[in-house]
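Q: what does this look like with flavin-adenine dinucleotide bound?
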Amino acid sequence: MISDVVVIGAGPAGLSAAVAAAEAGASVVVIDENPRPGGKLLGQLHEEPGTGWWIGAEISKSLAKRAEEAGVRILSNRQVWNLSPKWEVALDNGESVCGEYAVVATGAAERPLPIPGWSLPGVMAIGAAQTLTNYYRVRPGDRVAVVGMDPLSLTVAHELSMAGADVVGIYLPSKSVFAGSQADPDRNLEYLAGMSDLAPNALLRWGGRLASNRALRNLALTFFPTSGIPLMGTKLNLRKSIVSIGGDERVQHVEIATIDKHGNPGKTRTVDVDCVCISGGLYPVQELTRDCELVRIDQLGGTVPLYSPEMETSQSNLFVAGNVTGIEGAKIAMAQGTLAGTAIASRLGRIQGKDAVDQAAEAVRSARKSSAITFMPDIDEGRRIAEDLWLQLEREKSMTQKDESYA
Amino acid sequence: MKRISEHPVLGPLEEEEIGFEFDGQSYRGIKGDSIAAALLANGVRTLRYSNRDGEPRGIYCGIGHCYECRMTVNGVQSVRACITQACDGDVLESQGENRREGSNDF
Ligand SMILES: Cc1cc2nc3c(=O)[nH]c(=O)nc-3n(C[C@H](O)[C@H](O)[C@H](O)COP(=O)(O)OP(=O)(O)OC[C@H]3O[C@@H](n4cnc5c(N)ncnc54)[C@H](O)[C@@H]3O)c2cc1C
Ligand code: FES
């Protein structure tokens, strides 16, 4: 199969790239290993400032419909195994799809956070709980403990209680090599501080306000009630961590320790639960860009490909969009996808002039400004580092070109 | 059992039912369910048993990365239950040591 553009990943970024390119007249194929398009958008559900509820399942459906109306072919249930230059995409069924341009929009995944007992049925990643609850409408448990304190875990805790689950508490992971600073109460308060006033639910807003003031933060840690702070049907526990998960054949209880303000455990207690949701943080899924210039930038969530202001990587005609470039919200992923698709359409000669590309680039900037959730507290700094490294790469490239022309 | 039929924000549930079999027992699901979601809605958490010790395993990542949910679907081994849609008439089997015929964990 040959087309102008092959997009890998039917999340908000990939679908938006496909729509932009196809609506300009390019032929586009999108590949995703899930049974339906939408990516992580499918499970999302939160209140957006000014615009009401963000129901990911519905937005996914309308994006996919728009893509199909523009002539995009969406291949679902197909895993991409390899991507090779100019651009051939190898699928798990032995077939391949070729395109003059490729867009890698493989999104984000969750870091595992091992806790003793975590292999028991009933322990799951917070994202699995999110999709089960909001998309499949199946409650992952009736009494749920959430581990890890970050914008995603707070959002999902709220979603779980809206769906009728009893969220017994949000706890820190216990100190371990895996948990790192995630087990440190002060680091967590600082993290909460990074969340803007626009935060989508009261849990987030409360956390943000409390933690934004350094003096308050110190006070809050010292006096944070060891019983946690009750909030929207659950408890935020900065002074409690999960020591282990137990049960016969499935989760039946967790062991919770009271910790001091540095995260060191003291007394423990057993709490009955039938589900534990672990939030270990998100990272960009970038295996398919391995031949591009890559750089590890922790502020963006991990290793990411470097890319131009039009989303092109160091490999010509290979573009990226969405969380593969760093962990951000769905609206930003969509704007990045639109930019990549528009830039490709322009390169294909389907769009005249630079206006459309400039507008799409501006839309990414404004999506960032109005973003409701910030997943990585220092994301702006991460972006700046990535942009600088790209410019450096460009300079080096033009130097070698000059050298070669003199030779 | 664990199905969220009432939700303050989301609309009504899809009502079209499907029927399938897992380790010899019959279950009902809703059209569009993933296999893992349909089983969990029936209270089934254990999807396979670990090869080494025969310990029960269930859904973990939910996005096809960890392979904890792999099972045999209509004779095909190691299919990921979290990203595979349940279809009417499916015959599903758990894999691994200790597999117990008809076992479930209500
Ligand atoms: C668990 C989780 C929860 C999140 N919750 C929220 C939230 O509530 N609000 C919010 O704004 N943001 C949330 N995010 C951030 C989220 O990543 C972005 O909102 C957005 O979905 C990113 O879009 P994307 O298109 O870049 O990637 P994704 O939405 O991740 O889509 C990528 C797609 O690529 C597919 N894919 C990847 N590799 C392959 C391959 N090799 N072969 C075939 N297909 C492949 C995947 O199956 C997936 O469908 C969440 C992220 C995660 C991981
Ligand atoms: S739960 Fe991880 S692959 Fe299915």
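The two ends of chain B are 10 Å apart (CA to CA). Chain B touches chain A through 39 residues (CB under 8 Å).
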